[in-house]
Amino acid sequence: METTTEQLTKGQPWYAVRIFSLKQKEIDRYFSDSGLETFIPKQWMDFEGRDGKVHHELRPVVHNLIFVKKTTEPEMRAVMSAADYKMAVIRKSQESRDYYEIPARQMEEFRIMCNPEVELRQYLSEEEAKMKVGSEVLVKFGPLKGLSGRLVRISKKYYLLKEVPGMGVALKVSRWCCVPMEK
């Protein structure tokens, strides 16, 4: 079943929640128990276990960020204040008390691009992503058809970059499959 543009634009926006704890799984469970949908970008990693063997495990890309699907701001503030963990929703600016909302379409594309089964993907910090120069494009052909983002060069290869507060993800793409976005 293909996801249409109409389906992507419907739905609730998301919040990026920065956590100040090493208990990411527990905090994720706390949000789930509170009835909130969450997303943590993960990737397959190899590591050496205590037994000396190499293990292949799905692990979070960043340990201080959880994305939470929007509810009402008062409800979100209540869930955040009732938590036993130190965390904060990323705000629009330092002066503003309003939470930064990630539009449903942008978050859905970001989630698609974070699929751990997809290869030739790179995760970037928020600062690294902002420094990348590129044009806004729409992918017209290939497996990434319908996704939008910035076409950037990383190590002499072209990538489709999608940014959200706190991080960015870049997928290898052929520049010939992309067309400039209309303004």
Descriptive account of the structure:
The chain is an alpha+beta fold. Helices cover 22% and strands 36% of the residues. It has helices at 5-9, 24-33, 73-82, 104-113, 126-131; strands at 14-19, 38-39, 42-48, 54-60, 65-69, 87-89, 121-125, 134-139, 148-154, 157-164, 167-172, 178-180. The strands form three sheets. Strands 7-11-10-9-8-12 form a six-stranded antiparallel β-sheet. Strand 3 and strand 4 form a beta hairpin. The protein is globular and about 50 Å long. The two termini are 30 Å apart.
Question: Topology, pairings included?
Answer:
Elements: H1 5-9, E1 14-19, H2 24-33, E2 38-39, E3 42-48, E4 54-60, E5 65-69, H3 73-82, E6 87-89, H4 104-113, E7 121-125, H5 126-131, E8 134-139, E9 148-154, E10 157-164, E11 167-172, E12 178-180
Largest beta sheet: strand ordering: 7-11-10-9-8-12
Structural class: alpha+beta
How much helix is in the residues?
10-25%
**In percent terms, what proportion of residues is strand?**
35-45%
Give the tally of β-strands.
Answer: 12
Main β-sheet, in a few words? Answer: 6 strands, antiparallel
**Nearest-integer average pLDDT:** 88
Low-confidence stretches: 1-9
Q: Helical region count? A: 5
Distance between the termini: 30 Å
Radius of gyration, in angstroms, nearest whole number: 18 Å
List SSEs in N-to-C order.
Answer: HEHEEEEHEHEHEEEEE
* Inertia-based shape: globular
Descriptive labels:
5 helices, six-stranded antiparallel beta sheet, 36% strand, 183 residues, four-stranded antiparallel beta sheet, single chain
